């Protein structure tokens, strides 16, 4: 499959009379965007706000972050199964508005969400703080079901991201990136590396969607990396903010990008397997067996496995590792730790002696002091109810002390984290 990404660098965002893009300035017709979102009868109101890097702005609670993309020409669609029929994607030409994100906030189903600070120490920990933010503050209709509420907010972000990219087409890209990957080409003796990508599939607030299908209804699935970049996998996941994979993360997965960059150079990227993480122990055993069987059939000599969420997904992670190693397939694991504020507690819930090559992306329990801000988009009081937070996190002077756990992607299991270890 060959996918051509037309990258446009967005450097500034403003509201204007029409949605257009010129010389890095994205002008947004606020009324047109609001009208697009309010087509969903489950949404009572939506405010569209802008937040820029360096501003004293806090966005909380954050549900999802999406990068605007749209098809320029060619076969397929972006966000298949959500905005259109679940037709093929991962081919043709896709426009990417790089440097800007759509972020959803407002009243949420449950406060298993997170926050983004656009300045200060919180911004230093969040990869999205350096991007221009188009923020949707959403209020649902009264008395709708929790599942309808979650779906409406999830799809509102996707619709907004697609609208922004579609509205500026055609525009000349600043650069072109060609993504070419063929599972069937010869490996020339290079080590065959397969990526097993965990995706939560555990029920309301703990789901992902493949071509619009709830991942709970899927088995481990072989997918092209190009399909990820075209939005075939959508996040409905609202678990602990620091390590949940947003839709942006799916479309810009750094493990996939690194494997593609090194494909046919010092390794052969031998396949990408989506592994649904079920809460059922029977499903964990079944899915891990099937995923490793797929990797074996692909001729994997090594597998990279990344976790999503924490706690019971570590069981899946270790089962995958154990079963792969027993088939003489070497494994590398990416995971976070919940090691207490001082880093001395037991970091993960389940292990295996076979896990002898592990990359830690950080400790979710470390505490950071976030100063008061001039403007809050969403509901600031939600911070004490965020997964991993606690009562008393908000201080009398308007500042707050919170764990890394509440900051979106601060301890990303995909390695998007800005933290690093230093040998002193």
Map the helices and strands.
Layout: E1 2-9, E2 12-15, E3 20-22, E4 25-28, H1 30-37, E5 43-51, E6 57-62, E7 65-66, E8 69-73, E9 92-98, E10 100-106, E11 114-117, H2 120-125, E12 132-140, H3 146-167, E13 175-180, E14 192-200, E15 206-210, E16 213-214, E17 221-223, H4 225-229, E18 233-237, H5 247-251, H6 254-262, E19 268-277, H7 281-297, E20 302-306, H8 313-326, E21 330-337, E22 358-363, E23 367-370, E24 375-378, E25 400-403
Parallel strand pairs: 1-9, 2-4, 6-24, 10-12, 14-19, 14-20, 20-21, 21-22
Antiparallel strand pairs: 1-13, 3-4, 5-12, 6-11, 7-10, 8-9, 15-16, 15-18, 17-19, 23-25
Helix pairs in contact: 7-8
Describe the structure.
The strands form 7 sheets. A 6-stranded mixed β-sheet has the order 17-19-14-20-21-22, sandwiched between helices. The protein has a 4-stranded mixed β-sheet with strand order 8-9-1-13. It has a 4-stranded mixed β-sheet with strand order 5-12-10-7. The chain is of the alpha/beta class and 424 residues long. Strand 3 (20-22) and strand 4 form a beta hairpin. The chain has helices at residues 30-37, 120-125, 146-167, 225-229, 247-251, 254-262, 281-297, 313-326; strands spanning 2-9, 12-15, 20-22, 25-28, 43-51, 57-62, 65-66, 69-73, 92-98, 100-106, 114-117, 132-140, 175-180, 192-200, 206-210, 213-214, 221-223, 233-237, 268-277, 302-306, 330-337, 358-363, 367-370, 375-378, 400-403. The longest helix is centred in the middle third of the chain and has 22 residues, at 146-167. The chain is built from 8 helices and 25 strands. The mean pLDDT is 93.
């Amino acid at each position: 499959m060959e996918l051509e990404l037309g990258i446009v660098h967005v450097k500034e965002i403003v509201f204007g009379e029409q949605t257009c893009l010129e010389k890095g300035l994205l002008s947004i017709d606020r009324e047109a965007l609001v009208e697009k979102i309010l087509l969903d009868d489950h949404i009572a109101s939506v405010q569209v706000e802008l937040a820029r890097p360096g501003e004293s702005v806090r966005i909380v609670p954050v549900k999802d972050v999406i990068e605007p993309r749209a098809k320029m020409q060619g076969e397929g669609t972006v966000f298949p199964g959500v905005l259109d029929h679940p037709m093929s994607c991962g081919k043709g030409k896709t426009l990417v508005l790089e440097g800007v994100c759509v972020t959803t906030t407002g009243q949420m189903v449950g406060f298993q969400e997170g926050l983004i600070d656009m300045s200060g120490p919180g911004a230093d920990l969040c990869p999205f703080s350096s991007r221009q933010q188009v923020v949707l503050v959403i209020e649902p209709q009264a008395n709708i079901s929790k599942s309808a509420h979650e779906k409406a907010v999830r799809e509102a972000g996707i619709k907004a991201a697609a609208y922004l990219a579609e509205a500026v087409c055609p525009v000349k890209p600043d650069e072109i990136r060609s993504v070419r990957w063929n599972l069937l080409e010869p490996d020339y003796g290079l080590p065959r590396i397969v990526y097993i990508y965990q995706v939560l599939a555990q029920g309301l607030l703990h789901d992902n969607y493949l071509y619009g299908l709830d991942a709970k209804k899927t088995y481990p699935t072989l997918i092209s990396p190009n399909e990820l970049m075209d939005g075939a996998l959508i996040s409905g996941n609202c678990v602990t903010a620091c390590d949940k994979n947003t839709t942006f993360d799916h479309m810009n997965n750094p493990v996939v990008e690194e494997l593609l960059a090194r494909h046919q150079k010092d390794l052969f990227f031998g396949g990408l397997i989506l592994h649904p993480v079920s809460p059922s122990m029977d499903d964990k055993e079944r899915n891990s067996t099937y995923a490793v069987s797929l990797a074996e059939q692909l001729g994997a000599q090594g597998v990279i496995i990344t976790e999503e969420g924490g706690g019971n997904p570590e069981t899946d992670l270790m089962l995958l590792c154990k079963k792969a190693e027993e088939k003489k397939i070497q494994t590398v694991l990416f995971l976070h730790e919940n090691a207490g504020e001082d880093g001395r507690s037991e970091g993960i819930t389940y292990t295996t002696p076979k896990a002898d090559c592990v990359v830690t992306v950080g400790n979710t329990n470390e505490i950071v002091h976030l100063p008061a801000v001039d403007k809050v988009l969403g509901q600031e009081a939600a911070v004490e109810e965020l997964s991993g937070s606690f009562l008393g996190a908000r201080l009398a002077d308007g500042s707050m002390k919170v764990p890394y756990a509440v900051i979106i992607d601060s301890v990303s299991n995909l390695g998007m984290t800005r933290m690093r270890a230093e040998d002193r």
